[in-house]
Amino acid sequence: MPKQSRNEEEVNEVRDNILSRALQIITDEGYSGLTMRKLGASLGCAAKTIYNYYGSKDEIYLRIRMDGFEKLNNMAHDALAGESDPLARLRILGNTYVHFGLAYSHYYNIMFSWDVPKYTSYVGTSFEQLASREREIALHYTVLAEMEITDILTQNGVCSRDEMTFHVARMWSVLHGYISLHHSMSFREYSVDTLAFQERIIDEMLAVFTK
């Protein structure tokens, strides 16, 4: 009797499971540790079976990054709902970024910390279009921050593209440093309660806009 085809819901469940297992392998062994053979063994199937759902390791990797950035972006939009004040919205973006980074380190590392392929790695390849879409999703959070910072700087009468870009980079550097030191356990060596300092770090980071 021929095997019954999976319905759309079942196919999506299998695809999600493949991404989940692939993410775990990358978390444990790094990007270079992910192979289709190893992924198949983790899933209990032949590597060729995975090709029924994804065309290559590169597609799987890009889809994982897209999932991570979509999760972060959705968290931001949910948290921002109902708030109209630019400074308050920027604070929300800061807190949401930190919350995501601390709660989803397996995503955060391949999104922001590790030296892994980015869009430019795929220019001129068959994955350029998918990588371009991934890059668009990846930059959405910075676009949100740019909008709020532009509004704040405009209100303060000092708005320029260079000034806005500087503040995005400054905030990103501070928050990424905080998250990275937390993940590396460096704060623990320094006997610092990272969570107790989170609000103050964000407060002082935003204080420049109210002086």
Report on the architecture of this protein.
The protein has 211 residues and is an all-alpha fold. The chain folds into 2 domains: 1-55, Arc Repressor Mutant, subunit A (Orthogonal Bundle), CATH 1.10.10; 64-210, Orthogonal Bundle (Tetracycline Repressor, domain 2). Helix content is 74%, strand content 0%. The protein contains 12 helices and no strands. The chain has helices spanning 8-29, 36-43, 47-50, 57-80, 86-103, 105-113, 119-122, 128-138, 140-156, 161-183, 186-189, 194-206. Helix 4 runs parallel beside helix 8 and helix 5 (86-103) packs antiparallel against helix 12. It starts with 7 loop residues before the first helix and ends in a 5-residue tail after the last helix. The mean pLDDT is 92.
